[in-house]
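INFO worker-7 received task bundle
INFO bundle size: 2
INFO processing item 0
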Amino acid sequence: MAEPIWNKFLTERDKQVFGAAGYASPMGFGKRPALLVIDVNYAFCGDRREPILESIKRWRNSCGEDAWDALPVLAKLIETARDREVPVIYTTGIRRADNWDNGSWSWKNNRSAENKVRLTNHDHNEIMPQIAPGPRDIVVPKHKPSAFFGTNLMSFLQLLQCDSLLVTGTTTSGCVRASVLDAFSNNIRCTIIEDGCFDRSQASHAINLCDMNAKYADIVKSDEALAYLASVPRGLFDLPSGEGMAARANG
């Protein structure tokens, strides 16, 4: 079995503490999952694959190559979830044109005014075309890190009678972590797909996975998640019909 990605950042003392304190016990998958894809948009991926230090010159929140490595993983997870009729729920940011509602996001970043600048024909918050939402998928706009804060996500999960989330997206240390903690607080079982998440800081990615694995979620590779998704019976969920969505998008 491969060593966890976070082990190289831990001291021997840390490793012993987690084991002795009883943390990191696997909880297992739920019975009625949804696949959650957090903020995989141009802001965090950029408009082309390039080294992160190049990408952040134009896209200040870009995660560079790590984002592009995750895109084919996400595409396969989404394809499998749709095939099994498992809900696919996306989040992405939403902002006024004048960026007034950026709010507290402006306090810790001196480039936040760039949110008002469109670098290409694509808005920062546009979900990447490689994993674009389909007509039966659900898109939840949000202003803050958590997918739950100030959104309809919890009511949608209740409507679908979901008991668990397969969590992917970005950033591991920010919006993914915030969403997982809120799901945990609502007694929703979470499984984080390691190679389906990414961060601009590789150390933050690894350490936050470590901490969430210890207390709030299971961490698995996409192969394990795909095998689980393939086992979910079709017909569990009353999904959106998707009727009229293409016409609305083009209208």
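INFO item 0 finished
INFO processing item 1
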Amino acid sequence: MNNRILKTFAIACTLSAPASAEPTAKELFAAKYTPSPESSAPIGSHARGCLAGGSQLPETGPTWQAMRLSRNRNWDHPELIEMIKELTRFAAAQDGWAGLYVGDLGQPRGGPVSGHRSHQIGLDVDIWMLPPKRLDLSRQELSSISTWRAKGAYVNENWTPQHHAVLRAAAQDERVARIFVFPGAKVQMCKDETGDRRWLRIVRPWWGHHYHFHVRLA
């Protein structure tokens, strides 16, 4: 094999070799364990953005427990952190409820989150449907409940008037833009609500949200 052929072969191998993989945005944001030093501000859109100056929801409080902390997803805009705390205090006043179990918020600097299309700018939070009896669940006990009766837009026996009350309180908060919950819950709440029904426009049916409901600030 002469030098010209060797050079041609080398060039061909170089051109066909895959480029070194650049880290994805999801990987880059997940690698940040602390918030940025700027003032708090959402940047971009719920499904394509990031968060400056994030605040952390503590693991536990008088009326909440944050779930699955190994994911480091208990960060959000401070306005949402305050809204969550207020909603947990309301929930704790419901018969038989100790507060709320808080699922995924966002990452310290926002950005793409595995398992979610949104939760990127610090204005989204998932609240578990499981009514808290205590606020010190172990990792082995971390499991929510479904409130959906399969094959249709129906709730099952786990759905309670307290769920209705908590969702109504969240929807009536002027800071809240949307609440996503499975269709059966929206249908049931429309049937059961006897007072001012305007808050129901905030609640949007979205399949899959029967183990938790999703609150989004404006």
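INFO item 1 finished
INFO post-check item 1: The chain has five helices and 13 strands.
INFO post-check item 1: The first strand starts at residue 41 and ends at 45.
INFO worker-7 idle
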